[in-house]
Write a structure and sequence with these properties.
3 copies of one chain form a homotrimer.
Chain A (H helix, E strand, L loop, with lengths): L4 E2 L7 H16 L10 E6 L5 H12 L3 E5 L8 E2 L12 E2 H11 L2 E5 L7 H6 L1 H7 L6 E3 L7 H13 L7 E6 L9 H13 L2 E5 L8 H14 L2 E5 L2 H4 L5 E5 L10 H8 L20 E3 L12 H4 L6 H20 L1
Parallel strand pairs in A: 1-7, 2-3, 2-6, 4-5, 6-7, 8-9, 8-11, 9-10, 11-12
Helix pairs in contact in A: 1-12, 2-12, 6-7, 6-12, 7-8
Chain lengths: 333, 333, 333
């Protein structure tokens, strides 16, 4: 399989995903410290990062390559993404110049750009991100867009493999509390990943927080290919019956998308959606907790669970490095 | 030609400039991925950057070297540049300690420090920057000072070569609108570069925005050496007659230098200086648009020009990487 | 000597310290540009830095390794350090997840986390830092904690060696003025270092600024091992009689620790503690000035001293790079 873009896990078949993970595993046991010698990865962060920022730099270095980091608004001026606008505001440069220039300095470019959080249709269509990607004529990596996070999804898939969670196992994606609305990228990516892996997927979320129909439909189509299933419910406890994996994630109200006051009103009184030890009543004995991190302790998930044996969040995070090295190898070696 | 400082294109003859560009071209076709193995470049940014930040890191990496970035005020405290001051303000460290220390960690140091924008004579003399450079006993690079930007000038020269623009061709440096006053470094450097290359140079700028006499005189002296010419006008349309290159640039009012209110008053009503397709009436058919970037679309230059065939702004930006690799090679290999 | 942590100079005997410095000297004359090939150092800065940020990156590069920098609050969200807290504030991630994740991406992790400045007992016990270090299962480096700065202490020891200052020479650690309270890490580390090296150490500090008894006791114990001595006084001029080295440092009021108003009240009127040429009356003729930097010129130390022959502050700073290369080599080669 040749690779020029890593934009969306849905661009790949199950076999291609497993092939990337096999390469990940191979690189762990058979390091290739010169595979990307002389190659340069440009990393553009329009939003904050910890795991992604560190793991892409570390992954390039472990393969013998180099990287540079651009953080518009910090050391670099803000970048304008809207087309046709008269640029008399704070952004000094447009992505139409900035991104091709950066791409011309490196061998591959990776971009993080979160959802705007105002227009649900535009965010679900990932239109701003796709327009940015179209400006780049080099190998390209999505480090989290409005509606996708394929690096996280690939790391999560590998984590399920590592834990020997059977493809038919029950995978519960549950909404959890957070002080404010967060983007839909990770829940959408995790849902699709679990469906494509063949799981019995249940999305548990409060009323008003249903994932967009396009996201659900895409997951159902993936499940249909893989022999899995996708359902949804507003009853977290019911969802957890017989669960093998609880994937906890925070996201914003979709009924009143972009309306912070309406979101806050709906969110108040949902503290009982926090994951704690009781949440696992009815699940299988060794049901695992997954979370992409960062996680707010004692808000989204109780620390007793995070510090206990169910949690595999550190393994998931470490797998970010491992799978990204395979993606970089495929794109650049 | 041996090189220990890259401070000002005026330190070099036409032949020496062409020699650097020849090395740039050579390194593109004959990469030397180990030329700077073990060498370290320190990059100090007292002001924001995109191209310079990315291209110097990428250039060192392509030559096998390494770099580190220091951004005073972001992760590092502010640096004081004034001599003799009692340091009881916000700056915790003086350049007299900070810069020699950083230089002692690396093999070459590069600094960006924009104009203060208050005292025209001091900015034109580049006195703060020269005082900083005098503290460094290592190979040194000017990544844009109060009145100079030799890396940009060298990239622009190479761009003119790449486009096969004849040395006698008409080169118009035109002021263009911007929401606020910008420094004189790029217009001064571009003017001198074009004069030294031998062009018929016309500076078009509104009343009140004339470049300082020292800057004009230096360019006329360079033109005299090269058989070119330097004139100025406040009539952009007249300047464009027969032009082969339009170099658009924003800069601040020089008549009331450092007076933001006076600058804004003069600036209002100058929107017609924006470059659009009509600006090229009277120019040669394939007249090019150059700009150092970042450019404010639909303020300084209309997007129809930036996205059209006249624009060579991406080529200019890419040439930053290419020529800087030659400078680094000369300084460190 | 094998090494897995570089947390505190007090973990080492005099002989082990000299052994690290011997390795430093060896690496200067016998570079090992491939010693750490393929190795990655993670650098986490919870507080600003200039020397540490640049020298660790440069040191890894000179040994053939790589590094990445994480600066919580700048490009990365804030990190929570308190245990058991309900994370509904501004910090999005807890160190209990963030630090092990970062450690899992690299071969060694280094952290800077200054004192909280509120609870003297907690800061002297270095409890927050030690809790962070306990989360890391990789080689670990203290880049300055609440009460320690072993990299600075090791560089200072080497500087004293380089200057051929005899172990029995008189070493004066003097408080100097600063606009506000600074942490106790450097004075505590410098005091212990000088005592362990065997000096006649005098701590000169105004009333209200005595170093904590635990810090003094630890230094006295080190002096007892080495045949040195540790005393304290509030008379800077008396302390300087016969001094071979003046180590100037700013720190906060310990009598009213964490009380900014009380600190400011005590601090007013102590301007005469500034080091100037008169301070050296009574000292030996070639008495040296040491300071860890950054230093506020004409507040803490007069520029006539900093720019004069007594000052060895640039040598101290350069030695940061030199000794840290030995630490990295021991931890990772």
């Amino acid at each position: 399989m040749s690779l020029t873009r890593f934009m969306d896990l849905a661009d790949f078949s199950r076999e291609e995903v497993e092939d990337l993970i096999a390469l990940s595993n191979h690189l762990q046991t058979h390091p290739e410290p010169q595979a990307l010698a002389g190659k340069i990865l440009g990393l553009v962060f329009l939003n904050p990062s910890l795991r992604t920022l560190a793991s892409f730099q570390a992954g390039m270095a472990r393969l013998g390559g180099n990287s540079f980091v651009i953080t518009p608004g910090q050391g670099t001026w803000g970048l304008e993404t809207r087309l046709g606008v008269r640029m008399d505001g704070s952004a000094a440069e447009h992505v139409r110049e900035g991104l091709p220039v950066l791409a011309s300095f490196c061998d591959a470019l990776a971009i993080r750009a979160f959802a705007d959080g105002k227009n649900l249709a535009a965010d679900v269509a990932d239109s701003t991100f796709k327009a940015m990607a179209d400006l780049i004529d080099k190998p390209f990596i999505n480090m989290e867009s409005a509606i996708n996070h394929p690096c996280q999804a690939l790391a999560d898939w590998k984590t399920l493999n590592d834990l020997e969670i059977a493809p038919r196992a029950k995978f519960v994606l549950s909404w959890v509390p957070h002080p404010r609305a967060l983007p839909l990228a990770v829940p959408a990516a995790a849902l699709h990943m679990a469906a494509l892996r063949g799981h019995e997927v249940v999305v548990a979320r409060p009323d008003g927080f249903a994932l967009p129909e396009e996201v659900m439909a895409r997951a159902r189509a993936a499940a249909a290919q893989s022999g899995g299933s996708v359902t949804e419910t507003d009853d977290q406890q019911a969802a957890m019956q017989g669960a093998h994996v609880l994937y906890a994630k925070e996201w914003g109200c979709t009924r009143h998308y972009g309306d912070a006051a309406a979101d806050a009103a709906l969110r108040a009184g949902l503290e009982h959606w926090q994951v704690n030890n009781d949440t696992f009543q009815g699940a299988v004995a060794d049901c695992r907790l997954m979370h992409c991190l960062p996680v707010r302790r004692n808000v989204a998930v109780h620390e007793a669970v995070l510090d206990g044996p169910r949690s595999v969040v550190l393994k998931e995070a470490h797998n970010r490095l491992v799978v990204q090295m395979a993606v970089l190898h495929r794109l650049l070696a």
